[in-house]
Amino acid sequence: MVFHLFSEKLQELIKKKGFLEPTAPQKLGIPEILSGKNVLIISPTGVGKTEACILPLLDKIKNNNEKPIALLYITPLRALNRDLLDRIFWWADNLEMDIDVRHGDTSKKERSEQRENPSHILITTPETLGAILPGKRMREHLKNVKYVIIDEIHELVENKRGVQLSLLLERLERIAGNFQRIALSATVGEPNKVAKFLGNNVKIINADTEKKYEIKIELPKYKGNEVEGRILRIKELINQHNKTLIFTNTRETAEALGSRFKLLEKDFQIDVHHGSLSKNLRIKAENAFKKGELKALIATSSLELGIDIGEVDFVIQYLSPRRVSKLLQRFGRSGHKIGEISKGVIISDKDDLLESCIIAKNANERKIEGIKIHELALDILATQIVGITLDEYEISLEDVFLTIKKAYPYRNMKKEDFISLINFLSEMKLIYVSEDGKRIKRRKKGWKYYYENLSSIPDLKKISVVDVSKNETIGFLDESFVLEHGEIENTFICAGSAWKIIQIEGTKVFVEYIEDIDSAIPAWEGELIPVSFEVAHDVGRLRKFIYKKIETENKNLLKDFLIKNYNLNEHAAKAIIKTILKQKDFVVPDHKTIFIENFKDFIIIHSCFGNNVNNTIGRYIASMLAMTKGESVNVKIDPYRIIIRTFSKIDEIIKIILNANDLRKVIEISLEDSSLFKWNFFQIAKRFGIISPNATIDSINLNKIINQYKDHLVYNETIRTILKEKMDIEKAEEILNQIKRKEIRVVKSNKKISPLGKSGLERLFFDVIKPKRPEKEIFESFKRRLLGTRIRIVCMNCKDYSISIEVKNLEEYPTCPKCNSRLIGIYDYSFKKDPLELLKKKNLTKEEKKEIERLRRSASLMITYGKKYAIVQAGRGIGVETAAKILSKLPKDEESLLKYIYEAEKSYVKYRKFWKL
Fold first, then answer.
1. Which residue in 217, 273, 216 sits closest to 248, CA to CA?
2. Domains and CATH numbers, the chain
3. How does pLDDT run across 842-892, given as a tens digit for each residue?
């Protein structure tokens, strides 16, 4: 047993803690870590991999009497820091070692104490490591670092945070010398790539092989509403287990599920947990679940990682998990004890059933998606080069270049690209370059730039969506969505309904409800997990297999085969067969067959190539249509379809596909004017220091800045980022070449829309689950708002009476209780002075005279129209003259009056910014 390799003191503590047998990661990892090797441990959550690395290092620190800070423990989440402190503290305390946590929320007092009296172990995040590296006192303590642990490294390797960390580790090595590197990871696709990312000579310990999963797939039976059927089945499953985790792919879905459960049963023991909730709400939900006060917790990726929520005996994945790695991480949260099986079910819908089948099968066979690392990200590198000058004041360019190339994402860095970046940083006055061009040193401006760019995570501002009929917020959009889709008259879906944009002002989007759901941009899915080419391709293979079996075998035998081999419930197996049977009357698209059909002005290209390939081909087609026909084209994709809204014909689309060339060039040109490019450029330009970190998109002339940096490294980095994260040029070119060689056939339809085409269009608008709101309901809520508006009335006759009152409480023709006059005006709240004082004042300013004149006009209208005038005046942005125009139209009934007021409000919202000019 490996525990005997430890000191007697630690062995005593292990017995005291009740560790009888080492787990797989402990058995395999402890000897390697004690021997000083760099190690990558791969295993599911909850099997002791944290102890596998921390215990041998604690023993080393104690036995070797290492100076603080001896160990850096880096995690991707602050919440993990909190958990780790609780988990490691007992061991450290009993071994008479200190342990601290440091991140963005650490108080000034705590930071000061850490500078003066550092602990042996410091738990932190990549961003905070970047913050402390240049600090004079902290650098002295960091010289003592002998060990670095990176927890949940799989969360970092594929994004720019990971790239940043890879450079930070090389900067740390310049300070501390060679230290032992250890990383912990959930199950990943290319472990060798993750190991290289960690460092040189890394021993890979795969302790995942012993873990067993029981993954079932269900399509719930339902009467009427499909969503309700899924929720009722989830409720049944929750009641059959003690503690259930329910994973969704987006926070919007998590919130929607949570609200529906509360509608179903008010006191049902369930809560929601996701990254957009406040820290207090997340901790409250975690603790309630841990204590058993909740039977279930609905979560996004916020609970995939090793946050302690106690034992979980069942996991539900709501709809397809979209990635094999996601499924393994999520289902791995159940059955934590040694030898236990991780159990869970995917609650699917008809459209993603086959995808769920493939992902579950690949999960059991450990066929996991590959790793895509950001290679040569120049925006991250710019910040880190400035950081190096802050660390060391002055350094040779050759040293900087060699340090950078040691980081795996920059191993292929070319000297000329490096020099171009150095020259840019010099032009920006962020570093000094020596006259001979061989050395660089820090500049004062570099400090501010560096600390403003510690994080590589985009700063996503929330934009309120305001319903003009109620003047109330109905939801929120990310700034990136508003940039991409936020044009006046554009339509989109929010809170289950379709809306048209009236105006955008700062952090608010003013909208009106529309019934034409088909014309709306589908509800934004946020950063919805992309489905890989491999998974989508395998879905195509499975379609073909089922289609052939339907042709040759008994349907019951096929149903039994699907149930047995894919752990489907009977209803799901029948639904798959039924879908293929229906589609058989058209063409069944598969991995070697592209099927193209149209419905109204939609062209649907069925292509089983995954999100990034479909996105690439879809954007290419749209770009060619725009260039050759001058046509504005809308494109939406999913892993199995490219849906284009166009006036072009199918044959024109096929011609574009068959003659495709210069794919990269066409896409790069098309990206230049896209909102996707603008949003990414905005974020990347901030990291380069071109745009202030506090700038908002509406506060700068972004187009001018983009033109200024055309073909510059900032521009090129934006293109590189988009192509890496959203596209797959190489695979798309391979597909298009296979089409040309007729290895993939393209078939068009002349029939009505097929079942798969119909479900694709329905899927685009899947968030629209509320009934359409009748116009009457809209105007009723609008009327309630107007009647509930508080106004200030004043008597223009005696000038001695003024009260604040809600419009609904006003008499039909109000009179002054003091002088019995009907000359009652409505005072403008924006005019800050007391109305009675103003009316009695003798020497009036020009503005005050205007306000009294306005009051007289208002009183005249009140005499003529009474309360009806007050209702109009209560409209947002409606002045006296606008009210007079509305009333002069003599609306025939209340509904007509409300419509006039509503249109006037819309006009105000739409044009008021021009009135201020």
1. 273
2. 2-206 (3.40.50.300), 213-364 (3.40.50.300), 378-452 (1.10.10.10), 462-519 (no CATH), 586-764 (no CATH), 775-915 (no CATH)
3. 888 888 888 899 899 999 999 999 999 999 998 888 889 899 999 988 887
